[in-house]
From TrEMBL:
Cell compartments where the protein resides: Cytoplasm
Protein name, as recorded: Alpha-1,4 glucan phosphorylase
Function comment: Phosphorylase is an important allosteric enzyme in carbohydrate metabolism. Enzymes from different sources differ in their regulatory mechanisms and in their natural substrates. However, all known phosphorylases share catalytic and structural properties. Allosteric enzyme that catalyzes the rate-limiting step in glycogen catabolism, the phosphorolytic cleavage of glycogen to produce glucose-1-phosphate, and plays a central role in maintaining cellular and organismal glucose homeostasis.
Organism classification: Bacteria, Bacillati, Bacillota, Clostridia, Lachnospirales
Family to which this protein belongs: Belongs to the glycogen phosphorylase family.
Residues with N6-(pyridoxal phosphate)lysine modification: 658
Catalysis performed (reactions): [(1->4)-alpha-D-glucosyl](n) + phosphate = [(1->4)-alpha-D-glucosyl](n-1) + alpha-D-glucose 1-phosphate
EC nos: 2.4.1.1
Cofactor (UniProt): pyridoxal 5'-phosphate
């Protein structure tokens, strides 16, 4: 390996300044300097990127295509530099040029091509795949507008378009030569071939051209570079002169717009299905382009014989959003490569695998037959045939109760196409994302499928990449860990266990807590800059960052704050440890209750933060525009990690893992991966409360829960609830929060009152909070427990998760360099 040439890099950055802006580097503003540096970094990456592909091809490696509507990458510059093998030298160069890396990083927009956990998981997986040396391609959509930016105006969320590409993306490469045609609409004609075979030909369709943009995914210190490929859309024949001459100018422009619309914007829903046609268009658009490309690539390498495709290609479906891949692969194999149904089916099942990320009923994708068959006539025909054959199989297997089984399991039923059923039937593997979640899938939600295909099911507990979430986000703690136990943890997180011996070491405790304090100061600066609120870094930083959703129960958190405020007002003489409640969350643009919860948090903040009489004992901060890059500042500063979803509802959670790794203690329910976190760190080093998932499911089934009983019998809770409707937090409009009150108590307004058992769990939540606050003041105990949380986070690396997918589902071999 050639020694890294610092002088060359320096020159290149300076040249980039001239080339891009016709000015000297020293004359550039931060944003311009970012582009000059990023272009040079991309150039550092490019050779490894080309070489990775070459080696993988020479070694004929199997490749996984991670098919996902979302990749929540965050920023690339800092992470790329950190992962590059010459990262020390690169940092020196930047310093010698007088560039401030962290200011450059701040000039890069987040790549917000995702909503929350599901999209961020995809991003962590790509980092792990490259770092572990597997050949992978993330396939998605190049949304012109990513996840909206959130402004808080008068306490309300306001959505602002995220025009993230307006200054260009220095890391992307447009691959016009790899464009693919995707067909929508029309009808299918059946033609009998000379050999008697039937051919199905889509006619009268509209074509859209899919153009891929590749961005590099840099493995940590190993010269491996994988690819994130996102597709842009163009009208196939823009402005055909023909149309123009005939005076059909308008029509030509319209079809261009139809194409452009597909990639216009990311749907801002999380755990919720809206049933919009454009969404199905998006799904088929990127899936068709990705599937065609993968098969063609394989065919070219194997003399056009695609019969052994599953030996070299794996498609992982990130939830049901990419599930049309099953039918599209069937179509390509049969219509473009002339395989029989049976041949194509065997290949499809062996190639595809499906990850389920939720049991929430409202998240299940079910497309009306009408809409589906009109937009994708050939695909619908194939789905019908898959369904017909599946129903036959059910009849054979369950002759005496076939119709009941079919009613529950068919792909097409009640006028709908059920995407989860297609994904399960059309693939060889189905996995949940945490042990509890998988158990619920097997025993309840997907019980019938589990009974029929037990061998398909497995659990793959989620993980996070320690490169971004410790090494990059928390450099001071990362350095401390490395000083104590060496740097192996960066690629082998279970090594971090070695820190446990320092848990009771007074000096180590002091160091650990000093670092936490520095991170709290860093967050305080961020909050002051962005929100204008001054934080007390001696107070408890109690952090809840995640999408705003009723099942996650931000409402329970703020009700507890309201309860505490009443306590302080009633008992000003009592000791009360200063407590800062930090929220970060975006609500889906059309989700009324979620948006009103944001308004409530902000109004509570307004009242409490401005009440001089409580002398700053409580502060409430809603951090505007929570995103990956702000998570990197917030998470390292946390003392408490709020993981308080209704048990059984949070499939896994991943902020729970990020916070644990950074030394926060969990206040949480026995839900999702919290169960495994508690198992790793010990129940004594977390604060667990509330109903178990079995209890929740029981209560849901026997419908015996009446929150009014709590309202009637618990005065303090009743007082908090009354403050929602007596104008205490909204004097200008006392009725403002009535819908939240109703959601908790009123069965007339919603079919079930307190669907997420907030009032049911509130008392035990208050207790868990009290216990945590008490323990926080025992500084030795706390330091020990915090160190133990960090040191027991080893299981939650996405490297471990990826190795499990590789072992059980993808069967990949590593690229050797
Ligand atoms: I379905 N998840 C998400 O972020 N968006 C979705 O649309 C769906 C699921 C999340 C789950 O809610 C989390 O519990 C989980 O940790 C995450 O997916 C990754 O698996």
């Amino acid at each position: 390996m050639q020694k890294f040439d610092k002088a060359m890099l320096k020159k290149e950055i300076e040249n980039n300044a001239r080339k891009l802006f016709r000015r000297e580097l020293t004359e550039l503003n931060e944003k311009e300097a970012f582009h000059a540096v990023a272009a040079a970094i991309q150039n550092q990456i490019i050779d490894d990127w080309i070489l990775t592909t070459k080696r993988a091809e020479e070694e004929d490696r199997k490749r996984v295509y991670y098919l996902s509507m979302e990749f929540l990458m965050g920023r690339a510059l800092g992470n790329n530099i950190l992962n590059l093998s010459a990262h020390e030298e690169i940092k020196e160069v930047l310093e010698e040029l007088g560039l401030n890396l962290s200011a450059l990083e701040d000039a890069e927009p987040d790549w917000a091509l995702g909503n929350g956990g599901l999209g961020r998981l995809a991003a962590c997986f790509l980092d792990s795949l490259a770092t572990l040396g597997y050949w992978a391609c993330g396939c998605g959509i190049r949304y012109k507008y990513g996840f909206f930016k959130q402004q808080i105006v008068d306490g309300y969320q306001k959505e602002v378009a995220d025009d993230w590409l307006k200054d260009g993306n220095p890391f992307e490469i447009r691959r016009a030569e790899l464009a693919k045609e995707v067909r929508f609409g029309g009808w299918v004609e059946t033609v009998q071939e000379a050999d008697g075979r039937l051919r199905f030909i889509q006619k009268g369709y509209q074509s859209v051209e899919a153009i891929p943009y590749d961005t590099p995914v840099v493995g940590y210190n190993n010269h491996i570079v994988d690819t994130l490929r996102v597709w842009d859309a163009n009208a196939k024949e823009t402005f055909s002169l023909d149309e123009f001459d005939k005076g059909n100018y308008q029509k030509a422009v319209e079809s261009a717009n139809m194409a452009k619309n597909i990639v216009e914007v990311l749907y801002p829903n999380d755990n919720h299905y809206a049933g919009k046609e454009l969404r199905l268009r998006q799904q088929y658009f990127f899936i068709s382009a990705s599937v065609q490309t993968a098969v063609e690539y394989y065919a070219r390498k194997h003399n056009g014989d695609v019969r052994n495709l599953p030996e070299k290609v794996a498609f992982q479906l990130n939830d049901t959003h990419p599930t049309v891949a099953v039918a599209e692969l069937m179509r390509v194999l049969m219509d473009d490569y002339q395989l029989s149904w049976d041949e194509a089916w065997e290949i499809t099942v062996k190639t595809c695998a499906y990850t389920n990320h939720t049991i929430m009923a409202e998240a299940l994708e079910k497309w009306p037959i009408e809409l589906f068959s009109k937009l994708l006539p050939r695909i619908y025909q194939i789905v019908e045939e898959i369904n017909r054959r599946f129903c036959e199989e059910v009849r054979r297997k369950y002759p005496d109760r076939a119709e009941a089984k079919i009613a529950k399991m068919a792909i097409i039923y009640d006028g709908q196409v059920k995407m989860a059923h297609l994904a399960i039937i059309g693939g060889h593997a189905v996995n949940g994302v945490a042990a509890l979640h998988t158990e619920i899938l097997e025993k309840q939600e997907l019980k019938d499928f589990y009974e029929m295909y037990p061998e398909k099911f497995s659990n793959k507990t989620n993980g996070i990449t320690q490169r971004r979430w410790l090494l990059h986000a928390n450099p001071e703690l990362a350095e401390w860990v490395t000083n104590k136990i060496g740097d192996q943890w960066i690629t082998d997180l279970p090594q971090i266990e070695k820190l446990a011996v320092y848990a009771e070491d007074k000096k180590a405790q002091a160091e650990f807590m000093a670092i936490k304090r520095h991170n709290k100061e860093r967050l305080a600066r961020y909050v002051f800059e962005h929100n204008g609120i001054k934080l007390n870094v001696d107070s408890i930083f109690d952090v809840m960052v995640k999408r705003l959703h009723e099942y996650k129960r931000q409402l329970m958190n703020i009700l507890h704050v309201m309860y505490l405020y009443n306590q302080i007002k009633d008992h000003p003489e009592k000791d009360f440890y200063p407590h800062t409640f930090i929220f970060g969350a975006k609500a889906a643009a059309g989700y009324k209750t979620a948006k009103l919860t944001i308004k409530l948090i902000n109004n509570v903040a307004e009242v409490i933060n401005n009440d001089a009489s409580i002398r700053d004992k409580i502060k409430v901060v809603f951090v505007e525009d929570y995103k990956v890059s702000s998570a990197e500042v917030i998470i390292p500063a946390a003392d408490f990690s709020e993981q308080i979803s209704t048990a059984s509802k949070e499939a896994s959670g991943t902020s729970n893992m990020k916070l644990m790794l950074n030394g926060a203690l969990t206040i949480g329910t026995m839900d999702g991966a919290n169960v495994e976190i508690v198992k790793e760190v010990g129940a004594e080093n977390a604060f667990i409360f509330g109903m178990s998932s079995d209890e929740v499911i029981q209560l849901e089934q026997n419908r015996s829960y009446n929150p009014m009983d709590i309202f009637n019998n618990d005065q303090e809770i009743r007082r908090v609830l009354m403050q929602l409707v007596n104008g205490f937090y909204s004097p200008e409009d006392p009725e403002l929060f009535r819908p939240l009150y109703n959601s908790l108590l009123n069965t007339k307004e919603s079919d079930v009152a307190d669907r997420y058992f907030i009032l049911k769990d509130l008392r035990s939540y208050i207790k868990a909070q009290e216990e945590a606050v008490k323990q926080f003041q025992n500084r030795d105990w706390w330091a020990k427990a915090a160190i133990l949380n960090t040191s027991h986070a080893g299981k939650f690396s996405s490297d471990r998760t990826i190795e499990e997918y590789v072992r059980d589902i993808w069967h990949l071999d590593k690229i050797t360099l």
